[in-house]
Amino acid sequence: MKRLYVDERTEQINGWVSFFCLMLTQLALAGVLVYKRYFLGLPEEAYAEIIWILGLSVGGYWALRLYFSGILPVIPLKKMAIIYIISVALIFIPTLLIVGWPPAERWYEVLYPFIGVAVILGFYSLVAYFGKRRLEKDIAEG
Amino acid sequence: MEELEMENRVELARVEKGLSQEQLADLVGVTRQTIGLIEANKYNPTLKLCLMLARVTGKNLDELFWIKGER
After folding, report:
1. Among candidates A87, A81, A71, which has minimal Cα distance to A130?
2. Residue numbers of the domain that contains B23
3. To bridge B39 with a disulfide, which of A3, A111, B11, B45 should be the other Cys (CB 3.0-4.6 Å)?
4. % of residues, chain A, pLDDT over 90
5. Contact across the interface for B49 and A5, Cβ inside 8 Å
6. Which residue numbers in chain B have pLDDT < 70?
7. Chain A residue with the nearest C-alpha to that of B44
8. What's the predicted TM-score (pTM) here?
9. Number of domains within chain A
10. For the domain that residue B21 is a member of, what is the CATH number?
11. Residue A4 clears pLDDT 80, i.e. is over it
12. Measured between CA atoms, how close is B55 to chain A, in angstroms?
């Protein structure tokens, strides 16, 4: 029997198919999430694991893709601080105006925008820094 | 940016060498289907595969591949 080659074209096709199926899976999970949350009105405990799986899948996919492409610009600390302040203000102020202060027993909810933006920007900085470093190392090695 | 289309004379070079698609595919380590698609201008091979095809058929790279409209 003739052996089957995995050549560059079939590898390319494998990549496209994997991407397509991953997107399909993520969309299906998002659909299930929306259905459970808004159509069935289930509490968060009923779909918390889906949020985690979807978050890890989407976050992991983009982090790895951007890390290996090494294309994200590394933002200097001062500029990053400005972006952080503006982002927090853009989330915090409208939320406060619409929803108001949380009750005293849930005071920690006030911190969500501060922590959330810090996590996202910190994650971005790590991916950008290590992605660029890896690429520059590859280039330097020739 | 304008997308460039590639053309090639892989089929002619292969026939000149007296090779079948399958034989050429075996020599460069790809499938017969990949050779068929390259010859039909429906698949752009990587530079590595272009160089292997050039080596096996005894041609220069620019004899084998060129940008559409430039020849």
Report:
1. A71
2. 9-60
3. B11
4. 74
5. no
6. 1
7. A9
8. 0.72
9. 2
10. 1.10.260.40
11. no
12. 18
